[in-house]
Amino acid sequence: MNAALQAIPQIDSPQDSRALRTALGQFATGITVVTTRAADGAFVGLTVNSFSALSLEPALTLWSLRCSSPSLPVFEKAERFVVNVLAEAQVEVSRRFALPLADKFDGVAHAENAWGLPLIHGAAAWFECRTVSRQFAGDHCLFIAEVERFTLSEAAPLLFHAGGYFALGSRL
């Protein structure tokens, strides 16, 4: 075995959830806030870093939500949602939507799209989506959605790595 690899501890059991979480944290991601509207008209949103492009033809995205999330029933019933890709300057927005607050939108500048769903001002990009599939896997629900409309801004995205927020570095 390579001497450099010998110095790296190996964990044989994926049941060591803390170690697995730390290892998964080595994969840097962007940060999004996924928003929709509940049946009673209230806006719902939460911080998500599991967002991913799935397909270009057709234009599909994927994100996942923990099965124990109080927001799961709302997203299961929602036909549409918006993925707001947060910009570097939106760390506090990410933190706010990660908390169990009664009104996460209070003090957060936003507008409504054509379907009455919240678009967070200042985001790096917005993907307005229609759910085409939901599937339970492990302790999460996977949402696959068609991108019906998207908008791109000039803002650099907010990044998340090893439990912390980062700004985009220089291009290599």
Automatic annotation (TrEMBL):
Record protein name field: Flavin reductase
Q: Offer one Pfam family short name for this entry.
A: Flavin_Reduct
Family matches, as Gene3D superfamilies? Electron Transport, Fmn-binding Protein, Chain A
* Domain Flavin reductase like as annotated: residue spans: 24-167
* PANTHER family attached to this UniProt entry: FLAVIN REDUCTASE, FLAVIN-DEPENDENT MONOOXYGENASE, REDUCTASE SUBUNIT HSAB
SMART domains tied to this protein? Flavin_Reduct
Top-rank taxon, per record:
Bacteria
